[in-house]
Batch of 2 targets.
Target 1
Amino acid sequence: MAKELTTRAQDYSQWYNDLVIKGELADYSAVRGCMVIKPYGYALWENMRDVLDKMFKDTGHQNAYFPLFVPKSLFEAEEKNAEGFAKECAVVTHYRLIADPNNKGKLMVDPEAKLEEELIVRPTSEAIIWNTYKTWIQSYRDLPILVNQWANVVRWEMRTRLFLRTAEFLWQEGHTAHATAVEAIAETKQMLNVYADFVENWMAVPVLKGVKTANERFAGAEDTYCIEALMQDGKALQAGTSHFLGQNFAKAFDVKFSDQNNKQEYVWATSWGVSTRLIGGLVMTHSDDEGLVLPPRIAPIQVVIVPIYKGEEQKQVLDEKVGEMVKSFKAAGIRVKYDNSDHARPGWKFAEYELKGVPIRIAIGARDLENKQVELARRDTKEKSAVAMEGLTQTVENLLVEIQTNLFERAKKYRDEHITKVETWEEFMQVLDTKGGFISAHWDGTAETEDKIKELAKATIRCIPLDNPLENGKCVLTGNASTQRVLFARAY
RNA sequence: CGGGAAGUAGCGCAGUCCGGUAGCGUACCUGGUUUGGGACCAGGUGGUCGCAGGUUCGAAUCCUGUCUUCCCGACCA
């Protein structure tokens, strides 16, 4: 029986949920707002993580691990950061349960076991890390510190969605310390470029690089750089952020170093992160009504081989032949799965692997053996063709590259077609309500106007693009003078 | 947290109005026939109806509370 999928046209949100659950990326759990990442989804995350991890190391970073809990007194040290996250913190107040005397078989919090100081479950780790860096840094010779951690964090969100916004999520957070602002800013931009490189070239998701307005800035940052992606429903998704933290945390945690002239200076900081949210963005960028569409470079399975046979004898012949193919694929570094399980028929497997987004499917039966060919189907275009067994590994390698490219180009074309320049408020609203996507419009630069637009249109300034050309114009809402266009969108 | 919807077998649902001891499809198990786009036949297994109370001779059904999920808001990566 078919796994019924909701189509995008029917209900975009439900379509997304269906893909995540039926594509076996994740499941709901018994915990509010928290999901179970299933093996297939986790394999995807592992591939993403491995690539990013290498990129971080190639740019000189090392991994470390800091505690899950942050004492409240440390958490509140950097005021803006604390204020920004305060309303979504899980707090540990007790350390013991006891048998409930009034309720047999039940446990209750032991009122005797109240913590002297509450522990915040980290929503982000600047506080605990900067408190630690204080002890690591004395001299300019101790700088820079280039550390990343892979971790889980908790943000008690009002409304959660699989991958896009969960109460607990997996991410990496880089936290670096530098002797100069120039160096820290360079680091911030470097990591933004690493993210853009990864998301575009590995996930095939085109992004716009930019800087956030003061309103949208990370709590405690001087500047927040971001990459913004566009989903198929016309809403934007913040895919990664890189923050220049100035000396805010150094001052809050009193982290100073002696420079070459033996002068005490505060350290300059950055932090940057991407999360499992990227998986949500990946799903909503490429997938279709048949299921997931995963880019080859990070797909857990790049090629699936489905045998078609009548009787055990034919199966054995195929097993042997395909065994050689698999060996050759693996030698070429291709992630291949041979599904010769007998309990599902070919048609069922075809549909299943389409749902799972496997980039290439190879079907092979007696007919093909005779003709020394296989049937090769690509997930991105759903085209099928007969190709020679001779040189198949090379054919597949080439096709994987082609699919990767095609997915990116397709997404980029869609994205580019959905950046609309508008001059008037009427146009602004009309584009937003009908076409969606990014709107490039003049803004007078004030937070009041930004707030007003958010209130009226539910659209926010996603970013001020990097290298944005200066252009005189009039603010789309107020008509006040403006020097540049910024990108607006409704966002996840 | 406000408004709306839902929770019954792994999954999708009916039954709830009008209380009488749980059903359909699919999946799963066994056997057989099948296998180039989600196979077919036969025989089986599996739930006490999200959870906790209450009303009643009797509760999936009525009442109260609570948890979780989805959609729309406010909040946010």
Target 2
Amino acid sequence: MIISDNLKMYVQKLRSSNLRPTKQRLNICQFLFDRKKTFHFTVETLNKKINKNGATKISLATIYNTVEAFTSAGYLKEILTSKNKSYYDTNIKSHHHFYDEGSKELTDIHYSQIKLSKVPVPPKGKKIKNLEVVIRIQK
Amino acid sequence: MIISDNLKMYVQKLRSSNLRPTKQRLNICQFLFDRKKTFHFTVETLNKKINKNGATKISLATIYNTVEAFTSAGYLKEILTSKNKSYYDTNIKSHHHFYDEGSKELTDIHYSQIKLSKVPVPPKGKKIKNLEVVIRIQK
DNA sequence: TATATAGTTTATAATAATTCTAAACTAGAA
DNA sequence: TTCTAGTTTAGAATTATTATAAACTATATA
């Protein structure tokens, strides 16, 4: 797949979510999704990496806005593992995580690697929105 | 069980964890553990409830210190469900949680209500510290 | 029992992540 | 081309938490 083609794809994708394909959003799309492996990040790390090569500066507020917009549009998955900081994952398929307490890094666990043979019924009037397994690991 | 007896018990408990049984810690013990049902709280709510009846004031810093000390002593379990805020649970037995996105409330799921028939092997050199299932629910 | 000391509490300041604000900018409809 | 609603931005505000340093206290031991 040729990378220049992806731009058009991202424009489509954004439009389909009622998000205007702005320069900043497209840059962030390319940064996040033009890669083969899934990418785990915090807003802090994304901001640093995006703004490293002084070429285009995207403000921190926009990084926050965009990550929030992409998450509610379903392009990103938010994972809570650590006090005071949210992690995001470009892998939005149903899957779970290892969280390394030492390095503070997330690793995907493929959904087939965890099998739940029993899941509780939600309280009356409530529906299950999602089910997340986090396995904390350490040395 | 007579409540006045619990004080002695808490003194023992604290001593066994190398925590001096101070007035504040004993107050917090009584507030947290002199109850039949498990209790879920944030530092904010604990602080409000503890300091409601103007009798004894415990500073916010002490609430933070104590919750931290009780968590590392294993009297409390920390549950991460929400950006920017930690939840704690007086139920330290292995169990899981419903997190209601609307009311932002936690409910215990008894460990027998969830069965994992397959769990991944941790990466080389790492050990599993704990495994937590959070089921997000909504209307 | 008195006292020295290490642990604890406290008010307050500092920090860190995130959200808010309001003015300037821009995509895209008309 | 022009208008407007959506977007970006710098910076201020907010919120949860942690750090600081002085006052206090539990408790070991003289």
